């Protein structure tokens, strides 16, 4: 009987150990021997891969670094979890090495028309849900635009919990024929499991300013439930000028396996500098 209790105790320890194991978010997975850019201003460079180690230097936003080695140590701050990386970088005509936390690196960069655009995850905050009287953790992402390494504008937006940080993309699109818009940026994050929300953030760039459109959220659970949101730019196909349309569809199956579908559509008008609902 004693051996049974011992085996049970070992089993429970293994369960709790597995629950406490930390995994790095996929968006912070960077390849060795590849150049990346600093997202968080004054990122600390340390002698060893831990927060108690000596601070050797600090690097500003948009500073280029070379990933030398991915360290197995993982640090979790709020809902952001990332490996430490050994890096090499140039500063003051000198090559230096050290360790930085991957959560401080940009997860997407774009150079266009003489501007550098960086997409990264800024921090985790507490958000209150007044309807359900709950507080939960929410990551904030950001897009920064720099001209000759000088920050000229930045915006922030929500990206859900750490579970939504498995994948990240950052791309440019056309101006969708919107008046005075140079081009459109699209930043996205998503999870790798059913029921984990993904987020799309469209941003218009005009006159050195970033203008965030309403955020889009998509989530699904096999064929039982899905919620999808998208923007349609009708003038791309010769339709309504200076407008974009928000479309939402939500499907849920009831206990009798019958689909209940809800749809919503809103049109936004663009006046060359801002938008409003029609």
Mean pLDDT: 91
Architecture per CATH nomenclature, i.e. the level-2 architecture of the domain at 24-105: Roll
Kindly, what is the distance between the CA atoms of the first and last residues, rounded to a whole number of angstroms?
A: 73 Å
Radius of gyration, rounded? 22 Å
Can you write the helix and strand succession as a string?
HEEEEEEEEEEEEEEEEEEE
The chain-level structural class is mainly beta
Report the portion of residues in β strands. over 45%
Number of helices: 1
Q: Main beta sheet, described?
A: 9 strands, antiparallel
Protein name: SH3b domain-containing protein
Domain SH3b: 31-109
Organism: Chryseobacterium aquaeductus
Summarize the structure.
The protein is mainly β. The chain has one helix spanning 2-20; strands at residues 35-37, 43-46, 55-59, 64-77, 80-91, 94-101, 108-112, 115-129, 134-147, 150-158, 167-173, 183-190, 198-206, 209-212, 216-221, 225-232, 243-253, 259-270, 275-277.
């Amino acid at each position: 009987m004693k051996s049974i209790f011992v085996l049970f105790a070992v089993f429970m320890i293994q369960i709790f150990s597995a629950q406490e194991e930390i995994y790095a978010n996929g968006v912070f997975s960077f390849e060795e021997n590849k150049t990346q850019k600093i997202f968080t201003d004054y990122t600390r460079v340390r002698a060893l891969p831990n927060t108690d180690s000596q601070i050797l230097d600090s690097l500003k936003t948009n500073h280029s670094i070379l990933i030398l080695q991915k360290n197995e140590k993982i640090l979790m701050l709020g809902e952001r979890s990332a490996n430490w990386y050994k890096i090499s970088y140039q500063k003051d005509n000198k090559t230096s090495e050290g360790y930085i936390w991957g959560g401080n690196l940009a997860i997407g960069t774009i150079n266009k028309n003489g501007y550098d655009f960086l997409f990264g995850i800024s921090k985790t905050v507490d958000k209150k849900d007044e309807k359900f009287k709950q507080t939960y953790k929410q990551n904030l992402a950001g897009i920064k635009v720099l001209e000759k390494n000088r920050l000229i504008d930045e915006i922030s937006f929500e990206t859900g919990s750490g579970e939504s940080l498995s994948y990240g993309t950052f791309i440019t699109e056309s101006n969708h024929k919107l008046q005075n818009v140079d081009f459109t940026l699209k930043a996205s994050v998503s999870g790798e499991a059913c029921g984990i929300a993904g987020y799309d953030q469209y941003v218009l760039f005009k006159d050195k300013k970033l203008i965030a459109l309403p955020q889009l959220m998509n989530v699904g659970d096999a064929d039982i439930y899905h919620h999808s949101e998208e923007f349609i730019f009708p003038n791309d196909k010769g339709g309504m000028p200076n407008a974009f349309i928000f479309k939402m569809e939500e499907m849920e199956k009831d206990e009798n396996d019958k689909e209940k579908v809800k749809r919503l559509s809103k049109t936004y008008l663009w006046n060359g500098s801002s938008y409003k609902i029609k």
